[in-house]
């Protein structure tokens, strides 16, 4: 059956950050700068890692995947947000809303899985260094990266398919600036029990399980670093993990507030701010975190773009 015919709502109205013209212009400039910064920063990271042979290692292979995810995530959300800030009374079609939901859920889930894989990579490198070349060879890295994209794609396909079974008969005002599963479920006039069950399952797997695996990996890593006798060895080991641990902390803190604790009492405006953090601010900061705190990346950037060591 055509999913379009199942829904009486053909267009959804999206909320903006402000109805005051001056603030709208301010937000428009701010988000445009963040969007351009995210695109430029992550593109530089991908280019430097691809062209600099010294970074052709598993850790930077996964970092390339993270940069690509950040690029496509911001590109899924920001263009529509900028349009709604530029034109008062922004709307999105039913098909466009489901499309945005599909890709946003896909990329967010993939990023959570990828952060777990990156934590495992650091665990093997520091806690099992003699096995690193065999445990993290190219076929293994390709399999892990492919699984990250595939598993998240399967999950978002299930959520989107379940969403197409629902009927939206009004109102059509989404209390957000983007289309997400929780916000759309509030507008449905048909039973959403199965959708809610699948949300819990996805939250437990993508959020709780991967968070625990990531924390377990870093507990082992930190314990191994503390057992090192050499101060320089400790510093080198910690420097390879600190950037990723900072990204993990930033990303999980925002996603958990949005998906794991949706009833924590936060206002709708706070929900918008949190969504901006993980869809806009985090992708913009990630390249800065990895480049400013990583000597290898800084060397690669200078070599690739300026021709100096």
Automatic annotation (TrEMBL):
Keywords recorded for this protein, A-Z: Cell membrane, G-protein coupled receptor, Membrane, Olfaction, Receptor, Sensory transduction, Transducer, Transmembrane, Transmembrane helix
One term under GO cellular component: plasma membrane
Domain annotation G-protein coupled receptors family 1 profile: ranges: 41-290
Main location as per UniProt: membrane
TM ranges: 26-52, 98-120, 140-162, 204-226, 238-261, 273-292
Any Pfam family: 7tm_4
Gene3D superfamilies according to UniProt: Rhodopsin 7-helix transmembrane proteins
CDD domains the record matches: 7tmA_OR13-like
Family listed: Belongs to the G-protein coupled receptor 1 family.
Functional description taken from the UniProt entry: Putative odorant or sperm cell receptor.
Protein name in UniProt: Olfactory receptor
Species the sequence originates in: Odocoileus virginianus (White-tailed deer)
Gene that encodes the chain: LOC110128944
């Amino acid at each position: 059956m055509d999913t379009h015919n199942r829904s009486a709502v053909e267009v959804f109205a999206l909320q903006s950050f402000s109805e005051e013209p001056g603030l709208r212009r301010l937000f428009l400039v701010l988000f445009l700068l963040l969007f351009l910064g995210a695109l430029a920063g992550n593109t530089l990271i991908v280019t430097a890692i691809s062209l600099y042979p010294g970074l052709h290692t598993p850790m930077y292979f996964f970092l390339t995947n993270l940069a690509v995810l950040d690029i496509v995530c911001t590109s899924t959300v920001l263009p529509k947000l900028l349009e709604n800030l530029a034109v008062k009374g922004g709307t999105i079609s039913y098909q466009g809303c489901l499309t945005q939901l599909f890709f946003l859920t896909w990329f967010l889930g993939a990023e959570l899985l990828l952060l777990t894989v990156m934590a495992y990579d650091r665990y093997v490198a520091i806690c099992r260094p003699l096995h690193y070349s065999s445990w993290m060879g190219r076929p293994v890295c390709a399999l892990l990266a492919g699984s990250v994209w595939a598993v998240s794609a399967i999950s978002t396909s299930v959520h989107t398919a379940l969403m197409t079974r629902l009927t939206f008969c009004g109102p059509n005002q989404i209390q957000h600036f983007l289309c997400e599963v929780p916000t759309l479920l509030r507008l449905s006039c048909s039973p959403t029990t199965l959708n809610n069950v699948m949300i819990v399952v996805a939250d437990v797997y993508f959020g709780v399980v991967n968070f625990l695996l990531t924390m377990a990996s870093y507990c082992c890593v930190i314990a191994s670093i503390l057992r090192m006798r050499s101060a320089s060895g400790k510093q080198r080991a910690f420097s390879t993990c600190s950037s990723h641990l900072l990204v993990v902390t930033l990303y999980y803190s925002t996603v958990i507030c949005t998906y794991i604790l949706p009833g924590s009492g936060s206002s709708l405006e706070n929900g918008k701010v949190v969504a901006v953090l993980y869809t806009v601010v985090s992708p913009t900061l990630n390249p800065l975190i990895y480049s400013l705190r990583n000597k290898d990346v800084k060397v690669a950037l200078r070599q690739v773009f300026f021709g100096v060591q």
